[in-house]
Design brief:
Elements lengths: L3 H15 L19 E6 L2 E2 L1 H6 L1 E8 L6 E4 L2 E4 L1 E4 L2 E6 L8 E9 L13 E2 L3 E5 L1
Parallel strand pairs: 2-10
Antiparallel strand pairs: 1-3, 3-7, 4-5, 4-8, 6-7, 8-9, 8-10
Length: 133
Amino acid sequence: MPSRACALSIASLLAVLVLPGCNNTLNPLCGSARPAPVIGSLLPAEVTFSEVQQGVTITVTGEQFVSSSQVVVNTTPIAATIVSPQKLTVKLSSAVVSGPGSVKIMVQTPSGNSGDLGCTSGGHSSTLLLTVN
């Protein structure tokens, strides 16, 4: 029969593993959780509408980009090419940018299958503005 101290330790461990909203670093079942992306800059930060019509490639730098991360242009998600966890590229066209003005650019990572385990997963970055002249 286990000692009372051992029984309390086992109960404490189980509580950490099953409590919703637990910290991913404490929950070994959160291994498939995806980090929320962080956006730092756009290159170029300004393009002409004629470049957009021809299909211009924008480089987004930041952190925590993963293979499932995508770029959201205004409200339209677009598949991105992940160059590294800190860099991705996306090709913009007039299908998503309808004319000159400010265009909202954000990176979004869908949640993994760990949400049911009380793990945080995925999310979206802050928004940067691309100027289209």
